[in-house]
Amino acid sequence: MSKITIDVKSRTPIFEQLRHNIRELALTGVLAPDEQLPSVRALACELAINPNTIQKAYAELERDGIIYSLPARGSFISSDLSSASKAAKDEVCNSVTDAIRRARLVGVTREELREILEREWR
After folding, report:
1. Looking at residue 1, what is its pLDDT?
2. Is the pTM above the cut of 0.90?
3. N or C: which end of the chain has fewer CB within 10 A?
């Protein structure tokens, strides 16, 4: 599954990178609903990381409703990502709100924020 990438130089923990990466691939439709994920062992070998790291990421993804597991069959992308999608949108909106508040505190104008938004939206 070469769609999943890990940056070993990043300060973000590997399980978080993995979790974020799979969540993004699922929410954008790159990983289809009910598509099977690689086994913990296979993905650990492919990415050259500890299987416990993969297991931790899979457990969090399951808790978030991004994937589901079937005993002796593996882990799959959830067919209903609506709650995960809403949670992702809420997370982004909260981050943007926090960024706007910080920007106002340091004197960034509304027009400067609009320019940034327009530039990044493209």
Report:
1. 55
2. no
3. C
